[in-house]
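Re: that chain you flagged

S.,

Sorry for the slow reply, it's been a week of failed gels. I finally had a moment to sit down with the sequence you sent. For the record, here it is as I used it:
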Amino acid sequence: MSGCLNLVSVGPGYSEHLTEAAQLALRQSNLIVSYELYLTWIMFYIAGKEVLTTPLTQERERAEAAVSAAREGRTVSLVSSGDIGIYAMAALVFEIMKEHDTFAVKVLPGVTAANSCASILGSPLSHDFATLSLSDLLCPFQWIEERARAIASADLCCVLYNVQSERRQDGVYRILDILLSGKSGETLCGVVKNAYRPGQKSYITSLAQLKKQKFDMLTTIIIGNRFTQKKRDWIFTPRGYGSWPGAVEQELEAPPKHAVWVFSGTSDGNEAARQIAESGRRIVVSVAGEYGAVVGKASLAGAHFVSGRLGVEQRKELMKNSSCRAIVDATHPYADKISSQLRVLSEQLCIPYVRLERECKLHEKDVILCDTAEEAAVKAINLGKRIFLATGSKEIETYLQAAGAENCQWFLRLIPDFEMMARAVNLGIPPDRICAMQGPFSQVFNEALWRNWQIDCVISKDSGTAGGAEAKLKAAQALGIPLVVIKRPGVAEFSSKTSLKYSSTTFGQDIISSLSQLGV
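Prediction finished late last night. Pasting the structure tokens below so you have them in one place:
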């Protein structure tokens, strides 16, 4: 007599997530093979039956036992949580089976972690997405890293399984770094532990903030794409191609050949680009967003602009195919990730790299210096109750999630970019506490704004003269309020780097002279 092997998925565990087909298979089986923990949720369906269990790491032994019993003519259920065909036992059974086996096989689908966790968070997987297991027990970690690069380059939503174990502590942070190379640090993400089980916990955060968290093997992470949004306590990714802003993207126009690529987004970066163009060199100006392109085009008529947060691979291909002659890094002093990326590209493409380094203008005797945004948040909360953030929108979550933040009122200044303003509001900054204007700002303006809002502490960055650092300091001193300043991040050195410090009047000529010396 031919046996029957049921490959049964029990989902998160409770009966409401167990399909009727799975329940029927369990009732009809005379042998249940499982890891003991999975039986916790199906005892009602297997009372009085023969049960065989093995430890967590003995998956092959369980599969062999189930196949052997089915060959003997028995009706067997091999049980797995989630979906047995996703990172689970079904594949092992098909490996072990022989072509001449005659027993029946039924694969009974279930609710996998991607589904259950997504439902708790809202609807983050409503468009294309990938799943990635971070366990390297059955797959080399370099393969996992390669797949993460593909996910980052395509900006796919993704679900991370087997996130962090006692043995694998650092792997998840390596993967998050890879994802950050192609995705914005502000990308919305969700973290779920014990989905639909006792002790269930979940929260919404950003991709950048994930690097500061600890996880375990009972945790699943869902990472959105650039269109993922937050509404009330949920996140969702719009489903349609035509109805979401920016979804229908035009193909990037081919940049001019043999050009100097200026990575800008700052006023002095645009001025450097203008002077390089006037020296007779072709230029491509790369900026992070459309707002930067609008501002840049106003002063650089006719220049070729590349805007948007491109993944590192797409940026590399554009520069390679257009025979880029040199990289001029005129990004913000705190844009350390893009600066590091540009230096790596310089090495890989064997092209010169020139960095415009703004002079530091703030010193410890005048301000309260901090190494991180977390430290700045703690200092500011201890110093004031109406705190002004002159740091942009990047670290809003850090400040609002700090201990004691709920006892403070937070005020923010950022550029008039709709997405940045919407993000700030979604994170909890009331619209009437947001000043959306293009800087830099004078001492008089800062004083007037902070006096009107009754600000008693300011958090800022040392963005140099061009970024209005001195004006902020003088305004804070005039009002007698503390200025908490986050130190500039360090960026690793690369052999092809040519570093320039500049003044407000000569930096353009310094760059042109350096390019000439490099044969560009």
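What I noticed first: The first helix runs from residue 20 to 28.

Talk soon,
D.
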